[in-house]
Structure to design on (107 residues):
């Protein structure tokens, strides 16, 4: 099983919590960790922006990524949400089994 660690940001803890709950409830993620207090600096539509955000660390199976990506775009409050997926080169075998079970579609 291939594990992905996906990163996205949200503008506030409430939207981050809603997104995290939806992804786990829909079995698109095994776990979502929300880290508040992030300061982001970026250029958007020609202007330099500085914003407080929450970082979400989304753990999922590689096979669930297309569905996770589509759902995140539907639910995310940003016009252009960040979604970066990093493939894990190693992880505890028991953790990989748990992620696979937690993200397996229900029949």
């Amino acid at each position: 099983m291939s594990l992905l660690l996906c990163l996205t940001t949200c503008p506030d803890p409430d939207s981050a919590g809603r997104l995290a709950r939806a992804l786990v409830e829909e079995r698109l993620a095994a776990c979502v960790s929300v880290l508040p207090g992030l300061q982001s600096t970026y250029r958007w539509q020609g202007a330099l922006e500085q914003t407080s955000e929450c970082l979400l660390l989304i753990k999922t199976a590689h096979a669930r990524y297309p569905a996770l990506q589509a759902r995140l775009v539907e639910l995310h409050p940003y016009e252009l949400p960040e979604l970066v997926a990093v493939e894990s080169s190693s992880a505890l075998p028991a953790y990989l089994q748990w992620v696979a079970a937690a993200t397996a579609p229900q029949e």
Q: What stands out?
A: The beta strands are 3-10, 31-44, 47-61, 84-87.
